[in-house]
Amino acid sequence: MTFEHVLFKTRGPVSWIVLNRPERLNAFNTALATEASEALALAIRDPETRAIVITGKGRAFSVGADVMEVADDPDPRERIRILVDIAHHAITAIRQTDKIVIAAVNHQAAGYGMALALACDLRVATEKVRLYYAYSLLGLTGDGAINLFLPKLLGPARALEVALTGEVLFEEEIAKFGLATKFFREDSFLEDTQNYAERVASMPSTVSGAIKRLMTDSWGRDLAAHLEAEKARILDRVGEPEFLQRAREILGRGR
Fold this sequence. Notes:
Layout: E1 6-11, E2 14-19, H1 30-45, E3 51-56, H2 67-72, H3 76-96, E4 100-105, E5 108-110, H4 112-119, E6 122-126, E7 130-132, H5 146-154, H6 156-165, E8 168-169, H7 171-176, E9 182-184, H8 189-201, H9 205-217, H10 223-238, H11 241-254
Parallel strand pairs: 2-3, 3-4, 4-6, 5-7, 6-9
Antiparallel strand pairs: 1-2, 7-8
């Protein structure tokens, strides 16, 4: 499958989805949104892929929806509906796949670009990265589950403050609250991200996917239900030959 607005490549166990509208700071028009969603589905279906990296070409991860496309449409409400439907399909796919999805945020992310990054399982960034809620500056209320993930990471009061004031989040606060956990130099960003993704991908998808599911489901689950789910998952894993092989290797190294 070939794309016009997305660069798709696979390096070992890692699939890369590079948003490729640098002249528009990777703003999502309908074409980019559609191709990015299709590339994501392609990576999820690939049996050799265990980690997926999403990043942007040029000076931004993404600044969100292409406001110009929306404003120029004879029916802007319908254009937004189309964009939101595509975006929400992608967000759902990220949260439902057992594969680990990593946002590699170069320089800045705003609006839906920020929402997409927060929906990913892990986030790495360039130094001096900036995040903008941005929606409220346009009189909008947000999409892409940004109003779900941002309060979980920042806390409800700080998230609301950021949303209402349009305040920019800088590297120190981004690191403090885990909005990104690794920061790489710009000149080695792609290679450092590849190495990081390969470390994540070294764990079998059955294991990483199960851990991802347990942690995600824990958000809305009470303690008893969560403990039962952990018990069921770990019993499933102990029955796998892979567990016994790895256990013997570790025990052998310790002797």
